[in-house]
Amino acid sequence: DKRQVFVSLTSAQFLLDADRVSYLSIFAYDTGDSPTLLNQFQARYESLQVTPWWIRAFFYEKVKDLYDRIFGVMGAIMAIVIYIALFNTLAMSVTERTREIGMLGALGAAPGELTLNFILEGFLLALTGAVIGCLLAGLTSLGLLFLDIQMPPPPGRSVGYPLHITFSATLALVVSLATISICVAASWIAARKGVNKPITEALVYV
Q1: CB-based contact 126:184 (threshold 8 Å)
Q2: Can you give the pLDDT at residue 206?
Q3: Computed over its alpha carbons, how large is the radius of gyration of the chain?
Q4: Contacts of residue 160, Cβ cutoff 8 Å, sequence gap at least 6
Q5: Sign of torsion over alpha carbons 144, 145, 147, 150
Q6: Residues 60, 69: contact at Cβ < 8 Å?
Q7: CA–CA–CA angle 193, 117, 75 (5° rounding)
Q8: How high is the pLDDT of residue 19?
Q9: Three-state SS for 114?
Q10: pLDDT score at 26
Q11: 146-to-142, 143, 184 alpha-carbon distances in Å
Q12: pLDDT below 50 — which residues of the chain?
């Protein structure tokens, strides 16, 4: 697993006592260039069978699909937990401020204005939490570059590899938007119950 030998084609054919080439591997600098290279070689060498790497690495797709399902289920569970936690917190906030809601309603505040205030409050809380979470994730990813934490060897190898976590701005944006949406929805649902309560009941609520 630690050594790789490069020899010329002539030397390899001499060692194998053959005058043919079984297969030829073409490597790209970027994985995203693979489809372009595939189309170029298929158009130029029609007599050869050109196979992309994702077909030859059949275990890759299976492992990737497994990880996608695992992280998909974990993400769904985390979204449900976040929604329940936010809804509980915002519902308690609305309940504790029922008298305040009744007083504002008695002063002439419209139910839509009161609901909008709670939605904006939930939006600001979610936005602040998302920004802090993204900063912590970025600092953690940057810190792992200098800590040199080694992972155990994967199957088929005897040498470990350094743990690097790549910070994805796109994923952070999607998760932040999802969190903000959940928080805004929870704020709206929680605020409706308190805002729709009659003013006389809200003023004497304990």
Answers
A1: yes
A2: 65
A3: 29
A4: 150, 151, 152, 153
A5: positive
A6: no
A7: 75
A8: 86
A9: helix
A10: 81
A11: 7, 6, 38
A12: none
- Which pLDDT belongs to residue 136? 92
**CA separation for the pair 101, 205 (Å, rounded):** 10
Q: Residue 43 corresponds to which tokens in the numbers above?
A: 């158009």
At 83 the pLDDT is: 79
Chain mean position to CA 171? 4
Q: What are the tokens at 56?
A: 């030859």
Q: Please answer whether residues 173 and 104 qualify as being in contact, where contact means their C-beta atoms are separated by less than 8 angstroms.
A: no
Q: How far is CA 108 from CA 104, 105, 144, 195, in A?
A: 7, 5, 55, 13
Distance, CA of 194 to CA of 55 (rounded, Å): 58
Task: Determine the distance from the C-alpha atom of residue 88 to the mean position of all C-alpha atoms in its chain, rounded to a whole number.
Answer: 25
pLDDT at 35: 85
